[in-house]
Structures are given as C-alpha cells and as structure tokens.
Design brief:
Chain A: Keywords: Cytoplasm, Nucleus, Proteasome. Chain A: Its main location: cytoplasm. Chain A: Pfam families: Proteasome. Chain A: This is Proteasome subunit beta. The structure holds three protein chains of three kinds. Chain A is of the alpha+beta class. Chain A contains five helices and 13 strands. Chain A has a single domain, classed as Glutamine Phosphoribosylpyrophosphate, subunit 1, domain 1 (4-Layer Sandwich), CATH 3.60.20.10. In chain A, the strands form two sheets. In chain A, strands 1, 4, 5, 6, 7, 8, 9 and 10 form an eight-stranded antiparallel beta sheet that branches. A five-stranded antiparallel beta sheet of chain A has the order 11-2-3-12-13. Chain A is globular, with a radius of gyration of 22 Å. By secondary structure, chain B is α+β, with helices and mostly antiparallel strands. The mean pLDDT of chain C is 92. Classes of the chains: A alpha+beta, B alpha+beta, C alpha+beta. At the B-C interface, α1, α3 and α4 of B face α1 and α2 of C.
Chain lengths: 269, 268, 253
C-alpha cells in the first residue's frame, strides 16, 4: 500500500520508487529524457552492496580490529555472513567498509601480489609487511580515484612487523592517515571518540582482554545507533605471533522501553 | 672473417650447444679495467681501477650510484652500463613508489639479468657488453652480486671482473674466509691488494686511478656519518692507500700469483 | 648424416633434407654441456603418493659463491615448482613466463592453475622458438611439478616444446643413470620424506666426482607435508638426506 497521502487518488506510477528501495543508480529516471552525455562512459558513482564501520586500535601486544558481518543492499540487510576482515600474508590484516564487490576485487589484487612475492622473492626474507601493503593500497586507491573510477572503500590496514605496530587508513580518495585508534564509516562519528578516550596515551598498557572489551563496547554502541549494522561481528588481533581472526560473536543488548532507565531523556531523577 | 660458421649471430647454437656471441660478449667484459667487490658482516665494498686515455684526459667513470642502498662497479662497455643502470634506478624508484620499500638487492640484480637474457635469444640485438659488480644493503644485510651479459647473476663473498681479474680472484680466494669479520678499513685494504694484482708490473694504485664504493657505516677516514652508498675518489682515498703494504715488501704482502695477464687474451 | 657445414643447421627455420631441425638438436646439446655458464648439471623430479620432490645437482664454480644463496629451483606459484638443466638464464626467462601464465589463470578462474595446463602453455611457448630464424630455441630441459585438484603431477618439457607426464623424471647431463635409479623405485608407494632421501641419493650417485667441480644439492618439495606450498626442503631434513646419500654412496663403491 502507498503510505504517502499526497499520492492517494492519483494514477499509480510504478516508475517512481517512493520508498527508495533501490540504490539511486537503479531507480527509474522520472525526468524528461536523456542529456547529450547519457551515452558517455559510465563510472562507479556510488557503492551498491555495502559494509559499514571498521574499528581498530593499538594495544600492548599489537593491533586489534573489528567489523560486523553485514553487507547491506541499500537499507536491506542483504548478506549476514560476510567477513570484512581479511588477512594478507602472516602479519597484516585489512578491514573494509564500503562496496563489498570492490573489496573482493582488492582481496584478489592482494592475493596476486602475495603470490608474486612468494614466487619472485622465494623466501629471500623480504616479505611485505603492513607498511608496504598500506603504501601499495594507497597507490592503487589514489590511481583509481584519479581516473574518476574509484574503488569505493574505506580500508584500515593493521599489523605488526619487526616488533613494531602499524595502523593506518586509506579510502576511496587515496587519503591516508595513521593514529592509534581508527574507525571508518558511521564508526568514525560514533565509536572514534570512545576509542580515543580509552586508548590514546595508553597504547602500551592495554592488555588483550581490555582491548577486546573496548571494541565490544564500541561495537555495541554502533549496533544501537547504526541502522546498517549487525549484532554479529568478528575481532582480529595481530601480534608478533601472527594473525588471528575470531569466530563471529555478538553482545547482549537491551531494547525494552527507556522509561525505567535513569538519566535518559526528559527524566530528571 | 669469422672464427667459425656459428659465431656471427646470437640466435644460432653451435653444434656443441654453445652461443658464441654470448661468449664474445663475456670477452668484452674482460676488455674493461678491473673491478673488485668484497663483503663483510657489516659492509659491502667495491674497488675499481680507472683508465685514462692520456695526460689531458680525465679518468673514466667506473662506479654508479643506483639508490641510497645500492651501487655498482662496471667493466666493459660504459654506454651499455648506463642503459642498465638507468633501468636499475627505475626499478629502485618503482619499489619506493609502490611499497615505500628500498628494492631488495637480489631482485634488482635478477631484473637486469632477465633483461640481459632476452638479448641472447632474439635476432637483431647483441648481448650487453658489460659486467657489473653490485653491492647493496637491505633487510637481509650487506650483499655482493655479479651480473654478466649471459643473463646470469650470482651472489659472492668476494668477486672481481675485468682485465686480469683472475689475479685479483686468486688473492680473494686465498683470503675470503677472513672477510666476514673484517673492519671496513681492513676490508678496503684487502680490496686494494686484490685490485693491485690486476695492474701491470710498473704501475701502482693512486688517488687518480682508484675508486672505492661503500655501503655501511663510515670509516674513521671519512668525514661523514652517511651509511648509504657512496663513492670515494681523489684525495679522500689517500688514507686508505696508505694502509697498503708496499708491493716490494715481501713478507707482509701476499705472494702474487704466477700468471698475470692470461685472461686478457681471447679464449681458445 | 653430418650436420656441420651443410648450411642446414644455421637456423631453426630450416629443415635438413632428411627432415631434421638441427638447431633444436643443438639446443639439446646445450642442455648437456653448455660451456659458458657451468650448468652441466642434472635435475630430477619424483612424483610420489602425496607430493612432488625436485632436486638439482648445483655445480659450484667458485668457492667465493655464497652457499645456498644462488637457487636453481624456482617457484612459479604457491603450488608449482620448476627445475631446469641447461642455460640458467633461459630457465629464469621460462619461469617468469610460467608465473605470468599461472597468474593469468588465477585472475580468470580464481583458482590455482592445474599443473598440466601450465606444462601445456609452456610447451607451446617453447615450440614457438623452434619456428623462426629470428630466435633460437630454449637451451633447457624443464621439470615442472606441483599439486593441484587431482593430486601431484610432474611434467618434462624438452627444447622442442614436447612435454610428457612422468612418475619420475630426470634431465641434464646425468639423466640416463638417474632414470635407471628412478625406475628401481616404487614411486607411488613412497612418502614425501622417503622420496627426499631417495632424490638426494640419486643426485649424489650421478654426480661425476672425477670430471666436475664440487656441487651443492638443492631440493624443494610440494605436497601434503608442506600444506600444498612449493618450498625448499627444510635444512635438517636436507642434511639428513645428504648424510644418508653419502653413506649409501660409500656402500655402493
């Protein structure tokens, strides 16, 4: 049923997608025909199947990262068992938000790269670490955006090499930056302040258990506030021992009415 | 005109399965003046003998810097060396660009070796007429490689190429086991002694005809804190030349090998 | 009929009156005794129950060479290895081509290339170099081994471009003796570790002490023991195999 009163009593127009159920590019165009450029080269103008936030922090033993298992199709929770944390080599993990098919392409690209390293290097002791992989990805992302054909992702690259922690970000524009806490997507608004408060200046003291707690807490907040998130996520840690990605897990949440909760809304006591 | 039917072209195997053009290219390397390379646990060094065409001419360039961590010494056709060293510089830059990583030395050497192989298999080209000694320092420590026009490359503890290099090689084979724990000064001293073996009887090494290339921490004789590849020439090498044992001091200097100039001749 | 001086042996694009291509035959000679790069060596490959073992007799032409630094067996992909006898530089060129082929297959199908596919592509590539006067044939015999969906497989490619599958393969100078030794083995019953020991023994046996300089044994393997990765045989196993090979050689003599 059409819930928009302004449409009632008018002839039905199946060409108009009143609910925005399709991604913009697939919506029927209701304008007056095509302009002269409509037959021109078409590039990616928006992501289609998307993942939301990735969170990452440095802690005592290395780097920890988390991302949920959801790939959304517009607002539809389309795929609920997608892994968005991807190991590269023995001491690097990349986490991806944004377009999942572009991310799969990036995974293939990195796999080719690792095969090349494996064969040409042939155990010569020059394995690519997180720093090298981040540099490579940033060159790929910047080259693609310069062709006006970006890979629509925000990526976090984390790892440990030669006892040093590495954590850095790169996105569809080729922008990079490093910090001891990183978050992509909605997480950069909601979770980043929480992560900073918990981690900054404390990177060398946070234990593995504490790091897991910090991420759990942030993932929970994100699940409450981000409509494109899922209460099913994974945590990856990278230490000098290598890479470990957890099974999917969830946190306890509370969705009852807020009337009993103190300190919320208009309540004063 | 030709020595045999099978030597005018690099796309022809001889009945014995040899490639004469490639073998002749290896002879071109021996026409160039000698270069010597040595490696210790902490350093790799190059030493080369520069020729001059006359009193009014400058001395030739025998060493090239490829990147902060890599340098080469050449023997043979200098113009071929310039082409190959430009290629090496490009490889070094693209490694920095793509991965922010100094190119691993072994891969750099393999890259030019693979490039040189093509010139031994296809018509209308000639094999490169130059040999390299490549030194470099990377994550796995100091290295020394030899590259030759046949498209082969090998890693060595110490090596010499160029005219009368066999004499230097004989010296190196006698002493190489001590190189690993040498100080930079002792390593250079060994290198100079080896290089001197390639000289004719009446000649000696001096500040004009000798180049020294180094990767690794600086020597006490250097006025630098630089650990990357550098070429020492002119007056700066005098302190190193001073460390050499004079030629005619019989006991301290290693016995010169019997043969002196056999490999200046063409093979066969 | 002798080939020399007839004029029929100067180009790969020329047949002799009796239908031979002498340049390809000379390329085979290069496999056995090429002069300039001291590669008159033997390479063998063993296909056993759950893996492949490659081994080469690597001649050491100078004591200034750094042991183990100059590898002769090459890795083409995670699951593929290649050993050659003949011109070393040609071997490297072919390995690079094989890596391209394997990477292309991976890009097209998102799965590792079957060993036979790579052998087929390389065979075709090598054959092209027997057709024209503007190139010379490859002066190498190649053993390519790996593990794919159908288990381990092993191929030999000759300078003519022809290739066959084998249980046990030998190329290069000592291939006759090596083949005789391989034929004595029950290859399909051997474990990978046993095969490593046998491969080492055969390489030590075929090495001709009187004629050749010293040599280094280089071995790699791929199979169940290596998680399907083509990697060098670990040091401890390698030295165990070398010791047993030396002991067996003394018994033999």
């Amino acid at each position: 049923m059409d819930h928009f009163p302004t449409n009632w009593g008018r002839p039905r127009n199946d060409g108009f997608d009143a609910y925005g159920t399709y991604p913009i590019a697939q919506r029927p165009y209701n304008g007056l025909g095509n302009d002269v450029f409509s037959e021109g080269v078409q590039r990616t103008q928006q992501p289609i199947v998307t993942g939301t936030s990735v969170l990452a922090i440095k802690y005592k033993d290395g780097v920890m990262m988390s991302a949920d298992n959801l790939a959304s199709y517009g607002s539809l929770a389309r795929f609920k068992d997608i892994q968005r944390l991807h190991p590269v080599g023995t001491n690097t993990i990349i986490g991806a938000g944004g377009d999942m098919s572009d991310f799969q392409y990036i995974q293939a690209l990195l796999d080719d790269l690792m095969v090349e390293e494996f064969t040409e290097g042939d155990g010569d002791g020059h394995a690519l670490g997180p720093g090298e992989i981040h540099e490579y990805l940033s060159q790929v992302m910047y080259a693609r955006r310069s062709k006006m054909d970006p890979l629509w992702n925000s990526l976090i690259v984390g790892g440990v090499k030669d006892g040093k922690r590495f954590l850095s970000y790169v996105d569809l524009l080729g922008t990079t930056y490093s910090a001891s806490t990183l978050a992509t997507g909605y997480g950069s608004y909601i979770a980043q302040p929480l992560l900073r408060k918990a981690v900054e200046g404390n990177e060398d003291n946070i234990t593995e258990e504490e790091a897991v707690k910090i991420l759990e807490q942030s993932m929970k907040v994100l699940f409450y506030r981000d409509a494109r998130s899922l209460n099913k996520y994974q945590i990856a840690k990278i230490t000098s021992d290598g890479v470990a990605i957890s099974e999917s897990r969830s946190v306890d949440t509370q969705w009852s009415f807020a009337d009993g909760i103190r300190g919320y809304g208009a309540q004063t006591q | 005109m030709f020595r045999n039917t099978y030597d005018s072209d690099n796309t022809v195997f001889s009945p014995q399965g040899r490639l004469h053009q490639v073998e002749y290219a290896l002879e071109a390397v021996k026409q160039g003046s000698a270069a010597v390379g040595l490696r210790s646990k902490t350093h790799s060094i190059l030493l080369a003998l520069k020729r001059s065409t006359g009193e009014l001419a400058s001395y030739q360039q025998k060493m090239f810097r490829i990147d902060d961590h890599v340098g080469i010494a050449i023997a043979g056709l200098t113009s071929d060396a310039r082409v190959l060293s430009n290629f090496m510089r490009q490889q070094a830059m693209s490694s920095k660009m793509a991965f922010n990583r100094p190119v691993p030395v072994n891969r750099l050497v393999s890259a030019i070796a693979d490039k040189a192989q093509v010139n031994t298999q296809e018509y209308g080209r000639r094999p490169y007429g130059v040999g390299f000694l490549v030194i470099g320092q990377d994550q796995s420590g100091p290295h020394l490689y030899e590259f030759s026009p046949s498209g082969n490359s090998y890693e060595y503890y110490a090596m010499s190429i160029g005219a009368r290099s066999q004499s230097a090689k004989t010296y190196l084979e006698k002493h190489y086991e001590s190189f690993a724990d040498c100080s930079l000064e002792d390593l250079i001293k060994h290198g100079l002694h080896a290089l001197r073996e390639t000289l004719q009887q009446d000649k000696d090494l001096n500040v004009n005809n000798t180049s020294i290339g180094i990767v690794g921490a600086p020597s006490v004789h250097e006025k630098t804190t630089n650990v990357s590849f550098r070429i020492l020439e002119g007056e700066t090498i005098q302190p190193f030349l001073d460390t050499m044992v004079p030629k005619d001091a019989p006991a301290a200097a290693p016995a010169p090998p019997a043969s002196t100039d056999e490999d200046v001749q063409m093979a066969e | 009929m002798t080939s020399i001086g007839t004029g029929y042996d100067l180009s790969a694009s020329t047949y002799s009156p009796d239908g031979r291509i002498f340049q390809v035959e000379y390329a085979n000679k290069a496999v056995e005794n090429s002069g300039q790069d001291l590669s008159r060596s033997t390479a063998i490959g063993l296909r056993v129950k759950d893996g492949i073992i490659l081994a080469v007799e690597k001649l050491v032409h100078s004591k200034l060479l750094i042991p183990e630094a100059n590898r002769r067996i090459q890795t083409l992909d995670r699951h593929l290895g290649l050993a050659t006898a003949g011109l070393l530089a040609d071997g490297r060129q072919l390995a690079n081509k094989a890596r391209d082929e394997s990477a292309n297959f991976r890009d097209s199908f998102r799965s590792p290339a079957p060993v036979k596919y790579i052998a087929d592509r390389l065979g075709s590539y090598i054959q092209v170099y027997t057709l024209y006067s503007s190139v010379r044939p490859f002066g190498i015999s190649t053993i390519i081994g790996g593990v794919d969906q159908d288990g381990p497989s092993l191929f030999v490619i000759e300078p003519s471009g022809v290739f066959f599958g084998y249980h046990g393969a030998a190329v290069g100078k000592g291939r006759q003796l090596a083949k005789t030794e391989l034929e004595k083995l029950k290859l399909s019953d051997l474990s990978m570790r046993q095969a490593v020991l046998e491969a080492a023994r055969i390489i030590y046996l075929v090495h001709d002490d009187s004629k050749e300089k010293t040599f280094e044994l280089e071995m790699s393997w791929v199979g169940n023991d290596t998680n399907g990765l083509h990697v060098p045989v670990p040091k401890d196993l390698l030295s165990e195999a070398e010791q047993k090979a030396k002991a067996a050689l003394e018994d033999f003599e």
